């Protein structure tokens, strides 16, 4: 460890004192841009490792006469859709990741137990297998939550943008296409999917309801419900509906921010009571006790 720290310090000092042109900053920047683009693109498709282990895991499950139950398959597929991973991940991919992480975690602690001659690691390996199996489920739940938060943040801005397009003379779905192609984000991609579904022959209301089912966000469901009613009635007040929905979403965000602020103040009260109050008490009453002790001693 000291050798590693010394090497890191040496490299840092050399980078600080060498002339800038020697470092070829532009090449370094290009390298970082390439790496960033590679990582970004790899998150939108199946990784090579998952692609490689999936056939092996499926063949092992077939040899052991294990199969994915229909209910389990449906549940995993629903989670993949809600997480926005259905285009790049299959149910088999996810099950393979679960099995692979469980096996690797168990083998790691079994190896530690064999190398150290400690049987306690064998018991830890059992817990590691369970953790490795359920860890991908926790990951996908976090992915769903993060995606829903992104949709909530993007919704009011997109609604206002669509309302402006409609006021400028565009119809609803051309306005949705224009906004979806110009904007970036999760909700913009969902709107583009809606427009493409309608172009392929899906009904407008059905395409919107599919989006609400994929998003699983209350604000989006309300927006789709109000918009569907307006489309069914054939009313011309699309712009008013969009403005009203955007205003309601903004109000919901304000109320949520106020609620989180109130919860934060309550959460800060206990650490303040346990840490700051004793220190303040010692600072204020400490001299008094010292003088009192001196008086008693004399």
UniProtKB/TrEMBL annotation:
Membrane topology classification: Multi-pass membrane protein
Gene Ontology CC: plasma membrane
Entry superkingdom: Bacteria
Cellular location(s): Cell membrane
Assigned keywords, A-Z: Cell membrane, Membrane, Transmembrane, Transmembrane helix
Chief subcellular location: membrane
InterPro entries: T2SS_GspF_dom
Pfam family, one: T2SSF
Transmembrane segments: 47-68, 89-115, 121-140, 268-290
Protein name (Swiss-Prot/TrEMBL): Flp pilus assembly protein TadC
Species in which this protein is naturally found: Brevibacillus borstelensis AK1
